[in-house]
Design a protein that fits this description.
This protein is of the alpha/beta class. The protein is built from 22 helices and 14 strands. Strand 12 and strand 13 form a beta hairpin. The radius of gyration is 24 Å and the shape is globular. Mean pLDDT is 92; it is low at 354-372.
């Protein structure tokens, strides 16, 4: 059709589509550009949901929602908020991983800022192009896409991980969509499929590492913090060593949060807090074995070790109660090229016994499995350590064999068993296996939604350790308090706020709350985080009524006021 599209229809934040009144259509130059009917937002949302239901696959639903997001932001978030449990796996994990793999080929519209390591001089100009002032941004999500979910390095294709994360922040916690920025740091990719794909839209060279990489990240941090001094800087899906190094170096100077390390650690902490209500034990009594020593696994170790310190142990004593097991077995300090993120928890080289740990006696396959005992050394570590908590972040399907689960239960009366890998095809053990194997003793949470398990007449509801239960509320709490940085106390407060939403007094009760009340849950987390920020001395704004301040800060997807104004 010839002619231009009116601004009121082309701006997704202003567009109301068929909800524009006749007077608004006349005033905004929309006469004759819309069907005669004037609808409410609820009517539009009902139609959109029916259209969504007709999409044949989750990826098709993702593409439909992405197009809606680009057309009418209020309607998009209305649909998301009203159907969050249903749509969370569509707009984010796991469907976003499938979309990312096709991103360059399916490229439709840019919703991000792209910063290229080949043009560092463009960093400030790129942000300046947004036309936003120092008080206009609450949240920036950045990724270099080196370790996207469970699918690895996807270069500039990983942009949608930042976009998806922001969508969850808005739907779950009401962070205003006009006050957020998605950023991709394009430092190259080591993915040969992308480098040899003529459709690939990113830098066509291997990932830049070392000093040049660190300098580029430092440039990003200094620029974004100077331009948007009140924004929370969320890091997502960086490689394990880079993620931890950036966090350690920047946490005292910048308002930085890494969901893979801190968010995963804190939601796991919430599950353990609930479990300890059942066992009656203290964190000082815990022994932790983590199978899978990447970003998530070490982040969990960090949070649980910090909880041990708060329970009275020294930092050294807390670290001595953590065992990391990777595909080569127990992580020890004599391993060559030990990654930086594993070093704090590497066990002394002499900490061995005669079980053949880490040695390949010819029985192990290529995947590091050791017969029916699970991955090399895991069963031996469980038998020797007698952990109170066993966490899986390995993505090794079936790693927690019956022998491992039975050994876990032989060591302690009510062990905490957290196979957190996702999707379910990569889960270390399914609850419908582990609950019977443990005789109902294991206190479980998992990384994906699962059905309840009935064993000996008891229905066991298995909570999902979904970071979305925690990070949106954490972000909102930072916004309300204008916290100068994210402290361990704020992470603990977030974990406690999540754990307090569950009643574990009944047999088989879930350790974590369901996602169906995520918006209310996020508000509770935000209040706790803002209060902790004040207690830790990092809040620059302390409202008299925190509960009301949080409610006032939560954007609602609604057509408020006359159309045509800003926002």
């Amino acid at each position: 059709m010839a002619g231009r599209i009116p601004d009121a229809l082309s701006d997704p934040l202003r567009n109301r589509g068929t909800a524009f009144t006749l007077a608004e259509r006349d005033r905004l130059g929309l006469t004759g550009r819309l069907p005669a009917a004037v609808e409410t937002l609820d009517q539009q949302a009902a139609r959109a949901h029916a259209q969504l239901d007709r999409q044949p696959t989750d990826l098709a639903k993702y593409i439909y929602l992405d197009a809606l997001h680009d057309r009418n932001e209020t309607l998009y978030f209305k649909l998301l908020v009203d159907h969050l449990p249903e749509l969370l796996p569509v707009v984010y994990d796991p469907t976003v991983g499938e979309a990312i793999q096709q991103w360059s080929r399916d490229y439709r519209r840019s919703r991000a800022v792209y910063l290229s390591i080949d043009r560092p001089q463009d960093v400030r100009a790129s942000f300046a192009s947004l036309g936003l002032g120092p008080d206009d941004v609450d949240l920036v999500v950045v990724s270099d896409a080196q370790q996207i979910l469970g699918i690895g390095d996807w270069g500039v294709n990983g942009t949608d991980i930042s976009v998806g994360k922001l969508a969850v922040y808005t739907a779950a916690a009401g962070i205003h969509p006009e006050r957020v920025i998605a950023v991709n740091l394009d430092v190259g990719t080591d993915n040969q499929l992308l480098l040899n794909d003529p459709m690939y839209l990113g830098n066509r060279h291997a990932r830049v590492t070392g000093t040049a990489y660190d300098d580029f990240v430092a440039l990003y941090l200094s620029a974004v913090a100077e331009l948007f001094p009140h924004a929370l800087l969320h890091f997502e899906d960086f490689g394990p060593s880079n993620a931890r190094r950036i966090l350690v170096r920047a946490a005292r100077e910048y308002r930085i949060f890494n969901d893979d390390l801190q968010g995963t650690g804190a939601i796991t902490l919430a599950a353990v807090l609930s479990a300890l209500k059942v066992t009656g034990e203290s964190f000082a009594d815990q022994r932790l074995v983590v199978f899978g020593a990447g970003t998530a696994g070490t982040g969990i170790a960090d949070q649980l070790a910090a909880a041990m310190v708060r329970a009275g142990l020294s930092a050294e004593q807390a670290r001595s109660r953590v065992w990391l097991v990777d595909r080569d077995g127990l992580v020890t300090d004599d391993m060559t090229d030990l990654p930086e993120h594993q070093r704090p928890y590497a066990r002394p080289a002499g900490e061995t016994d005669d079980d053949g740990r880490n040695a390949d006696d010819g029985r192990n396959g290529d995947d590091g499995r050791n017969g029916d005992d699970g991955p090399a050394g895991l069963l031996a570590v469980v038998r020797r350590v007698k952990p109170t908590i066993l966490v899986g972040t390995s993505t090794v399907h079936g790693a927690f064999t019956r022998e491992v689960v039975e050994a876990l239960c032989a060591g302690v009366e009510r062990p905490v068993l957290l196979p957190l890998s996702n999707p379910d095809s990569r889960m270390e053990v399914r609850p419908d296996q582990a609950i019977p194997w443990s005789g109902g003793k294991a206190l479980m949470a998992v990384g994906v939604p699962v059905d309840p398990v009935v064993h000996d007449g008891t229905a066991y509801t298995i909570g999902q350790a979904n970071n979305a239960l925690l990070y949106p509320g954490l972000g909102l709490g930072c916004v309300v308090a204008r916290a100068e940085r994210v402290t361990d106390g704020m992470l603990l407060a977030a974990a406690n706020a999540v754990a307090e939403q569950t009643d574990v007094s009944e047999p088989g009760a879930a350790l974590l709350p369901p996602v169906r009340h995520l918006r209310a849950s996020s508000a509770a987390v935000a209040v706790a985080v803002a209060r902790a920020a004040a207690e830790d001395g990092v809040a620059t704004r302390v409202p008299d009524n925190l509960v009301q301040a949080v409610q006032d800060a939560m954007w609602q997807p609604a057509y408020d006021g006359p159309a045509g104004g800003e926002g």
